[in-house]
Design brief:
By secondary structure, the protein is of the alpha/beta class. Helix content is 38%, strand content 22%. It folds into two domains: 1-84 and 176-263, P-loop containing nucleotide triphosphate hydrolases (Rossmann fold), CATH 3.40.50.300; 91-175, Rossmann fold. The strands form two sheets. The protein has a six-stranded mixed β-sheet, with helices on both faces. Helix 3 packs across helix 5 and helix 5 (126-143) packs across helix 6. It is globular, with a radius of gyration of 19 Å. The chain binds adenosine-5'-triphosphate. Keywords: ATP-binding, Nucleotide-binding, Transport.
């Protein structure tokens, strides 16, 4: 295993307690640059909490998170975004009554201090900067397969295209690490395949991807490595084949009444 110095993301004994409940308990792992790294586990295992800890949404109870070698354990959510970590949410933050392009421009605003859309629009270079932001938005929409949909209202997009829009919003500011929280929610099989292809393409473009996903077929085929959480603890980590055959993983899933197929 490579040393944590090479890791883009390093978790060291990461722990979060909510009152008497330990949602994430002493979790340590490294994510290497260019990996698609998935986090799986039964409902309530601590996956979303772990995302919140990495992105600064939730403070750590103890432990340490480092991004590109810098300790970000106590860094604010906005600063972390500015450093190059971006995420989508289970329930996306799309403004449904706005156009796709406008939503991506909001993504630029949310993630980047340097290109705060509101500030730019009030400045003297208003029109030029608006054109520049719009051009970035259009380019990002093309990257996610929504070229030409910039002026379409977000509400008019299919569920699959709304998922793509959520990804566009998250990558607008050019992050290095992208966290995706159940991007296949509400998608049918062929749409899942298309989304997997998009994620693989983004990785080829240099992004590192941290993925929470319940669809096992997708997780097993797209991931370089998988970490399995159960009751807040890391019970298995490794390439898909290794994790799939780990007795502790089978036990955790069967114990939670899971079927080994998609659900
Ligand atoms: N803000 C909070 N306050 C109290 N308890 C919380 C909070 N957030 C999460 N928890 C608890 O922490 C545990 C882990 O929850 P978490 O949402 O991280 O799990 P998960 O693996 O993402 O689950 P799911 O697959 O259902 O989304 C759960 O028992 C949950 O109820």
């Amino acid at each position: 295993m490579a040393s944590s110095n090479d890791a883009i993301l390093h978790l060291d004994q990461v722990t979060r307690r909510f009152g008497g409940l330990t949602a994430v308990n002493g979790v340590s792992f490294d994510v290497m640059p260019g990996e698609i790294f998935s986090i799986i586990g039964p409902n309530g295992a601590g996956k979303s909490t772990l995302f919140n800890l990495v992105t600064g949404v939730t403070p750590l109870s103890s432990g340490r998170v480092a991004f590109e070698g810098s300790d970000v354990s106590t860094v604010s959510v906005h600063k972390i975004a500015g450093m190059g970590i971006s995420r989508t949410f289970q329930s996306t933050q799309i403004l449904m009554d706005q156009s796709a392009a406008y939503n991506v421009m909001l993504g630029l605003q949310r993630e980047s201090r340097a290109t705060l859309v509101g500030a730019i629009f009030r400045s003297r270079g208003f029109r030029r900067e608006e054109r520049r932001c719009r051009a970035i938005a259009e380019e990002v929409l093309v990257r996610v397969g929504l070229g030409g949909a910039g002026e379409t209202g977000a509400a008019e997009l299919s569920t699959a295209n709304q998922q793509r829009l959520a990804i566009a919003m998250a990558i607008a500011s050019g992050p290095k690490l992208l966290l995706l929280d159940e991007p296949t929610g509400g998608l049918i099989e062929t749409e899942v395949d298309d989304l997997m292809h998009l994620i693989a393409t983004l990785r080829e473009g240099g992004l590192t991807v941290l993925l929470i996903e319940h669809k096992m077929r997708m997780v097993m085929s797209i991931s370089d490595r998988i970490a399995v959480l159960d009751h807040g603890e890391l019970i298995s980590i490794g390439p898909p084949k290794q994790v799939r055959n780990d007795p502790r993983v089978l036990e955790a899933y069967l114990g939670a009444n899971y079927v080994a197929e998609d659900h």
